[in-house]
Structures
1.
Amino acid sequence: MQRYFIDQVVMTKEITIKDADYHHIKNVMRMEKDDLIEIVDLKGCLYLGRIVDLNNKQVIVAIEEELKENNEFDVEVTIALGLVNRNKTEEVLRRAVELGASKFLSVKLKRSVVKHIDDKLDRKEKIVKEAAEQSKRSKLMLIEETKSLKELIEYSKDYDLKICCYEDAEKNTNSLKKLLKEKYEKILVLTGPEGGFDEAEIEVLKANDFKMVSLGKRILRAETAPLAILAIIAYESEQS
Ligand code: SAH
């Protein structure tokens, strides 16, 4: 069933949906009166709704019942990605939502080929919303402001596990498998840009309690590494 994240709190038995979601319901999904949809409201509550009317550029939905379902990880995972171009960033955003990340941010690093991307938050939020609806997330992934390494280190202070994915095998002293055996509330994962990390950056990260981990013997692209680690975290935390 199609899911919609709406920007209102469900407080009445009937709600009105307009704009992009109206367009999606009517013209993309070609839904009709009496079709059922799932709605996640601003409070994160999930409801089953029945379409009672879709005319005049709005859909009227009757709330049938509140559904109890949680498709989120037990742990909050933030992906910090070395700054890459807009296409790659958007690709990572989509996949990170599918794979369960709670937050995303870009980090300006020395070897980032791109020095700046326009933070078109509207466009990024649209991508996140669509991916969350498709993958049936219970919550929207938050996009944080782009940070420098210094700012990231400050930001990382309230995380109880900080991981840096680093392909340089000799310097990898931590087993990801062992690290993920513990229970955490918040994990921060940093992955590098196309050019990887600079040695000095690695030293700063280590000094600030980032654990260097390997994702295997092969070198992954900047846009693949965050997805690989999210899949590993999902496997370790959700498999019984
Ligand atoms: N050092 C290379 C590759 C960078 S790959 C270069 O100079 O071109 C981009 C990022 O993906 C890396 O910074 C790292 O965070 C991550 N990554 C890629 N392969 C990895 C691996 N096998 N283990 C851990 N991290 C990896």
2.
Amino acid sequence: MKIIKTKCYDEMSRHAANIIAAQAIIKPTSLFGFATGSTPLGTYKALIEKNKAGDVDFSGCKTVNLDEYVGLSGDNEQSYYYYMHKNLFSQININPANTHLPNGKAKDIDAELKAYDALIASMGGIDLQLLGLGHDGHIGFNEPADHFSKGTNCVELTEMTIEANKRFFASIDDVPRKAITMGMREIMQAKKIVFIVSGKDKAEILYKSVFGKITPEVPASILQLHPDVTLIADEAAMKIITEKGLA
Ligand code: GLP
């Protein structure tokens, strides 16, 4: 794993945006795997600036997102569909028809899970996957478990995740209890992974993810087995790793 330690969140975001832009320049038909949460917001902002400046063209690119809440439709402001369109897709020159998220309102969830994996495969797999890190070590919504998930799956969110994500909702009761998430297979089959982590509250779980035992109890630890991961983390998130002299 290549580790880039940055001074702050903004520097982390610019680094991640540079790598994503480089990917779009090198392969204009790239399939990007995108993530939500607060961590990628700065990266998306930097990409919008590059696109507006004419430095990167997304017109031939395609995207798939990691996850979506079950039960929320795209016009719900808390849905990841809404988040992606608001914070990125509507502000860059990507064709909306080339952007994809799991459908949280699908009538037949099992069919939706299979269709999502088939969709990713039909586009030739993910060229670059952007990942954030949950406080319990989740990537996408792959929560700690006794096994690693394979394909796209429907998960029950943990109390820690519901608690962490309640800040986006009117009340904790409004946080959906289930989500559809891409599984470890599609994440691990991405040709390149850019893993962004910020803030002191992630320091412990980042250390466990990158240097701890590879275990489904810490889902992100599987990234240690991927051949092309670039971790970009700010000093606060890197605190324990730095203190132990590991980077
Ligand atoms: C959510 C998303 C994850 C994301 C995580 C961390 O649960 N499903 O993909 O990595 O939150 O979010 P944040 O960046 O806000 O800490």
3.
Amino acid sequence: MINLYGLELTKLEELMISYGQKRYRATQLFTWLYEKKARSFDEMSDVSKSFREVLNKDFCLELPKLYRRQDSKDGTIKILLELNDGSKVETALMPYRYGNAICVSSQVGCNMACAFCASGLLKKKRNLEVSEIVGQVLVMNSILEEKNEKVTHIVVMGTGEPFDNYDNVLDFIRIMNHPKGMAIGARHITVSTCGLIPGIMRYAHEGLQINLAISLHAPNDEIRNKIMPISKGYPLPKLMEAVKYYEKEANRRVTFEYIMLKGVNDSLECAKELVKLIKGTLAYVNLIPYNPVDENSFLRSDDKTVHAFFSYLLQHGVNTTIRKEFGNDIDAACGQLRAKDQHEKGN
Ligand code: SAH
């Protein structure tokens, strides 16, 4: 059985042609799936009965199951989804003034082993299929439908490293972005990487106007090596070269994410080094208040320290923002809900 939610339009076209169908059949199906929100082939009234039989025989429309849900007072919704093989992934919805941003996971677990992150507590079990990433958005949309709302922005910032599952993440984005698909504008979609340079180089040539965020979190390799092991393979000078290459080829600016960790990377000396490091790029910096995780000893920086760091960057010509926080009363940090669920179940 092929899950139709896993096919972006050009792949669906090829498949339909291999079934002796006309190319437009794919667009028709796409419209049924994403615009008309059909949940069965029998609803597809303009598809002949005989081809619907073929569809029912060889294809399915399968979504992950809603396993657990947490709602925060501020409107954040966090869900844990169960996949076919019993794996669980988490997805969050953050209500911004400008729209509803969903944070999707790209892998079951993560191998990047960032010291501060709850996702890495569970090693990567496997990549998510395209349909399982698409499914996160569709399940969230069915929750939002109750309030006549829908997902308007997507960040691939949940569990997993998107560039370690490059092809599936890109197909997912094509389905989200396509006018006949979910029709979410490229500028409303952001992929976040811990700095896999080959992925950044490839992304530069996709010809999509999608946003790229890079988890930097340190102004030099000495600190970065301690908290982000990926830095050993892809050191900062090379990462900065890749960013400049991307800016030139894709004609887009990147955002550097920088978690403020008390006593680790939050000094003014670090701010000074950061200004030097990113000089020559057009990047923005997004300072992230750390969301403490029970399993490690990192602490969030004081507000005063964050503001001093913020002001230093601004004064030195770096476009900087401080990330708005969501869901502090629920397990909002990446991977926390899944880790908690496993912990409670004792496995
Ligand atoms: N692997 C990708 C995407 C997933 S992590 C990446 O590294 O970018 C998404 C973002 O959340 C990253 O910037 C990550 O460093 C950050 N993050 C992880 N744990 C966090 C926590 N406890 N508090 C705040 N941000 C966290």
